[in-house]
Amino acid sequence: MSSFIPIQLWQIPPTTITQSVSLPPLIQNLEQQLSQIAQQHKKVVLANSLAVEDMVLTHAIAQLQLPIEIIVLDTGKLHTEALSYLDIVKKHYDHLTFAVYQPLPQSLQDFETTHDFLDIYQSLSVRKACCFARKIEPLQRALAHKTAWITGQRREQSPTRQQLPQREWDTAHNLEKFNPLADWTHEQVWAYIHAHSIPIHPLYHHGMPSIGCEPCTKPIRQGEDLRAGRWWWESQDSKECGLHANPTSSLS
């Protein structure tokens, strides 16, 4: 008789003593960076995808009461859990304003006229066209007339981000771009979340360490690459929606 071995899904990492000890200098540096960004730019936004990294940044901004606008892209294809979580986050940080941007109806109509949605699984160009209509164009509107934006990107997230600088010039949007968590580890991010009792996206409890749109995200096994569940049918080096794939140059 063959024995059934259950698949162990990815789990939220526990915080170790070593990670707890490493947090204070990281937090001090993060808060200094965010304060400097807010001082240098009067029109700066945080693009919050509701991922755990962006919640670290949101919490720090709230703690410091910085005048940094927070934007969220509602693509129209988010999990219902994500929309419920957004409501929880808004209530938890009720003194912050979350500006929600959605796709233009005409953009969605143009995509649906040209493509069958299921073609995203067969064609990279179609998938990216979907991402453009649902993410990139709304982001362009959100960043219009801004002087800087902040992201939760980290170098260890994927091969396409290994050279990620903490500060860069985004030539596509013609403004500065900051990645304050670039050198943070996955474990350090979660240690911060645990230390500050930040509400956790429910899908993290279902084996999804990287959460995007519902059709393009699935749970992963423990030990798999953290972004293995995003666009899982594509090669590792194409797993970007285009939000962060624009030409940039590092700033010292």
Automatic annotation (TrEMBL):
<dbReference type="InterPro" id="IPR002500">
    <property type="entry name" value="PAPS_reduct_dom"/>
</dbReference>
<keyword id="KW-0560">Oxidoreductase</keyword>
<comment type="function">
    <text>Catalyzes the formation of sulfite from adenosine 5'-phosphosulfate (APS) using thioredoxin as an electron donor.</text>
</comment>
<keyword id="KW-0963">Cytoplasm</keyword>
<dbReference type="InterPro" id="IPR014729">
    <property type="entry name" value="Rossmann-like_a/b/a_fold"/>
</dbReference>
<feature type="binding site">
    <location>
        <position position="213"/>
    </location>
    <ligand>
        <name>[4Fe-4S] cluster</name>
    </ligand>
</feature>
<feature type="active site" description="Nucleophile; cysteine thiosulfonate intermediate">
    <location>
        <position position="241"/>
    </location>
</feature>
<keyword id="KW-0408">Iron</keyword>
<feature type="domain" description="Phosphoadenosine phosphosulphate reductase">
    <location>
        <begin position="44"/>
        <end position="219"/>
    </location>
</feature>
<keyword id="KW-0479">Metal-binding</keyword>
<comment type="similarity">
    <text>Belongs to the PAPS reductase family. CysH subfamily.</text>
</comment>
<feature type="binding site">
    <location>
        <position position="130"/>
    </location>
    <ligand>
        <name>[4Fe-4S] cluster</name>
    </ligand>
</feature>
<feature type="binding site">
    <location>
        <position position="216"/>
    </location>
    <ligand>
        <name>[4Fe-4S] cluster</name>
    </ligand>
</feature>
<dbReference type="Pfam" id="PF01507">
    <property type="entry name" value="PAPS_reduct"/>
</dbReference>
<keyword id="KW-0411">Iron-sulfur</keyword>
<dbReference type="InterPro" id="IPR004511">
    <property type="entry name" value="PAPS/APS_Rdtase"/>
</dbReference>
<protein>
    <recommendedName>
        <fullName>Adenosine 5'-phosphosulfate reductase</fullName>
        <ecNumber>1.8.4.10</ecNumber>
    </recommendedName>
</protein>
<comment type="pathway">
    <text>Sulfur metabolism; hydrogen sulfide biosynthesis; sulfite from sulfate.</text>
</comment>
<feature type="binding site">
    <location>
        <position position="131"/>
    </location>
    <ligand>
        <name>[4Fe-4S] cluster</name>
    </ligand>
</feature>
